[in-house]
Automatic annotation (TrEMBL):
Organism of origin: Dyella monticola
UniProt keyword annotation of Cytoplasm present: yes
Name the record gives this protein: Glutamate 5-kinase
GO biological process terms held by the UniProt record: L-proline biosynthetic process
Superkingdom in the source lineage: Bacteria
Pathway(s): Amino-acid biosynthesis; L-proline biosynthesis; L-glutamate 5-semialdehyde from L-glutamate: step 1/2
Length: 386
């Protein structure tokens, strides 16, 4: 995108990576799908396979492909319905493009909000992706825009890629962009903007450098890439951001050399289950707890008991992911509830020993067991974690 020279540095050691490719690389200049930039990225995937490495591809482009096929027609109906129709129309040519460029069979995997919110479906998706990799197949993942609704959409494929990276226990998240790196200012508007080659840790100052989407084709800008990097870092996965439009840059990846921005991991790797609990899309269930319960959960070693529950809002079933809030509506924790919403309402404020008496049965003394709970506040300061 720019003429600025980027320093080259080594990629972290990796055996399995998730590569995210955006619409701006597959639908150049807002038109239909083109292999112009995809060819170099496919060659990188082939080289990775030859080196006994595994790659999961998260690819945008379906909506852009569908729009190009109907370029001379006017979409009818609500905006969401039109986008869903375009996504359905464009999935086939998008997958066909990658199959044409791939030496291995390509498998399409469409994920939805519910696939990542429901623990059982989350684990099923992970098992499927891992089996595809074992079979030597190239999985191509995308959000299922055809059935997703706005309030349940994952939002963008940058964040989806980070979730998939944790899903398959990847060692590295690679984000191919039309921007060659993170800059300290918008390089499209500021000639003095300088690239940042290495980010040891994401801070609010670093995140503030990110802007919005660069064109009308894509839905995610640098901000979503940093959000994705933050999610990946929470799972112990570093992120590399680079230009997918520069064939030399992509070629250098084969030698584990990055011309772009490497966002490192700080701290220890979070347990996969705790990571999922913290970052999976939430449903409508909310449980409000009192100050004593907030203090207990902040320690990270306590379960949520019925005595600390003040209010239950929304509907959820046993095993669903719920958000846990304090009396001021501040997020405190997230966890898998052992009881449904109606059951929790009936036992709220009571002692655990009363559960069987009130309900006529018991699934245990805890509403959310500590093994199924991830805290969102710091145990020492009581402040919400980033």
């Amino acid at each position: 995108m720019t003429n600025r020279m980027l320093p080259e540095h080594a990629l972290p050691s990796w055996r399995r990576a998730v590569l995210k490719v955006g619409s701006n690389l597959l639908a150049a200049d807002g038109g239909g799908l083109t292999p112009q930039y995809a060819e170099a990225l496919a060659a990188f995937i082939t080289a990775s396979h030859a080196a006994n490495r595994e790659v999961v591809l998260v690819s945008s482009g379906a909506v852009a492909a569908g729009r190009a096929l109907l370029r001379e027609r006017t979409a009818v109906g609500p905006e969401l319905a039109a986008r869903q129709a375009l996504a359905a129309l464009g999935q086939a040519p998008m997958i066909a493009l990658w199959q044409r460029l791939s030496e291995r069979p390509v498998a399409q995997v469409l994920l939805t909000h519910d696939d990542l919110r429901n623990r059982r479906r989350y684990l099923n998706a992970r098992a499927t992706l891992r089996e595809l990799l074992t079979l030597g197949v190239l999985p191509v993942v995308n959000e299922n825009d055809t059935v997703a609704v706005d309030e349940l959409k994952l939002g963008d494929n940058d964040n989806l890629a980070a979730i998939v990276a944790a899903l398959v226990d990847a060692d590295l998240l690679l984000i191919a962009s039309d921007v060659d790196a993170l800059y300290n200012a918008d390089p499209r508007r500021d000639a003095s903007a300088q690239p940042i080659g290495h980010v040891p840790q994401l801070t609010p100052q670093i995140i503030a450098m990110a802007g919005g989407s660069g064109t009308h084709v894509g839905t995610g800008g640098m901000r979503t890439k940093l959000q994705a990097a933050e999610k990946a870092a929470a799972a112990g996965i570093p992120t590399a951001i680079f230009s997918g439009r520069n064939a030399d840059t992509v070629k250098r990846l084969e030698a584990d050399c990055l011309r772009g921005t490497l966002i490192d991991v700080s701290g220890n790797r979070m347990q996969a289950r705790k990571y999922w609990l913290r970052h999976a899309p939430s449903g409508s269930g909310r449980v409000t707890i009192d100050a004593g319960a907030v203090r207990a959960l902040a320690g990270g070693r306590a379960s949520l008991l019925p005595g600390g529950i003040l209010e239950v809002t929304g509907e959820f079933h046993r095993g669903d992911l719920v958000d846990i809030l304090d009396a001021g509506d501040r997020p405190v924790a997230r966890g898998l509830c052992q009881y449904g919403a109606a059951e929790v309402r009936r036992v709220a404020g009571r002692h655990s020993r009363d559960i069987a008496t009130v309900l006529g049965y018991s699934y245990g003394a805890e509403i959310v067991h500590r093994d199924d709970l991830a805290t969102l506040i710091d145990s020492h300061t009581g402040e919400q974690e980033a």
